[in-house]
Structures are given as structure tokens and as C-alpha cells.
Amino acid sequence: xxxxxxxxxxxxxxxxxxxxxxxxxxxxxxxxxxxxxxxxxxxxxxxxxxxxxxxxxxxxxxxxxxxxxxxxxxxxxxxxxxxxxxxxxxxxxxxxxxxxxxxxxxxxxxxxxxxxxxxxxxxxxxxxxxxxxxxxxxxxxxxxxxxxxxxxxxxxxxxxxxxxxxxxxxxxx
Length: 173
Hints:
Elements: H1 2-27, E1 35-37, E2 42-45, E3 50-53, E4 60-62, E5 65-67, E6 73-74, H2 78-87, H3 102-106, E7 130-138, E8 141-149, E9 154-159, E10 163-164, E11 169-171
Antiparallel strand pairs: 1-2, 2-3, 3-11, 4-5, 6-10, 7-8, 8-9
């Protein structure tokens, strides 16, 4: 009897997860109307006056989509990696790209979307995973920094030595 109950619970749990995932794809209502895509691989945030790269760092914008593999980085290496990225030409002739703050990254979350919780048209191939923010979690715990997890759009803190994805932003002038 226990085996049957376990199997039923497992089956129901699997069904619930699959149903939720399928429902969230159909029910994803895009709310971030302040984000304007450009054909050059960027998105302008009209409210915050920020320009976002549409592709995750490591991918390349080709014509109208992202190609290639996203690269994961530990937080400790990001300052050097972003600096090198800018020194080597940056993106779209702009060399002032930076790591976003937690608050800035959270503006990309589409609250009714799941897997990923972001507009997939504006930000194609976004991994349903963690993306680093520039903020340290807590100054009394300097080993940790914030990230936004785009599977479901929640913010967490992580050990800075863990590799997570990066989406760069720049202040529009």
C-alpha cells in the first residue's frame, strides 16, 4: 500500500509541475511595457534610462537572435571580466557596460512568466538560472552576493565563488 501511495504522490507531483509549467507558458502576460527592443541587440528601459544587452554574456547577437553558449562566472572575477570586455571593444561601440544592481535586474522579471521569468522575445535564450547582481548580500557577510534566478524570478544570495550567468547593462546618456 505504501508503494502505491508513494507512486500516486510522485505521479501527482510530476503532473502538477508539468501542468504549472505548461500553464505558465500559455498564461505568461508580459507586463514590462517600458522595455523597448532595438535591432542592434539591446533593449532600452525607458523608465530607468538603462540599455540592456539582449544576450547573456558569452553569447553573440546575430541579426535578430542570440547564438552561442552563455558563460558562467564566479562573482570574484566579474570586475576583471567586464573591464576586459569593455577594453576589447564592448558591444555596439559602447565600452561602459557594467554589472546591474539587484534592483535593476529585478525590473526584467515578468511576474506571470515561468521558466524563464523574463520576456523571451526581448531576451532570447535566457537561462532559467541565476544571474549575478553587483550588490554584496550583506557587509557583515562579504562572502555572498545577490543574484536573480530567472527560472521563477526570485532573488537569492550566493557564495561569490559559485559560477552564475551575467547580463550586462549600461546607463543611457
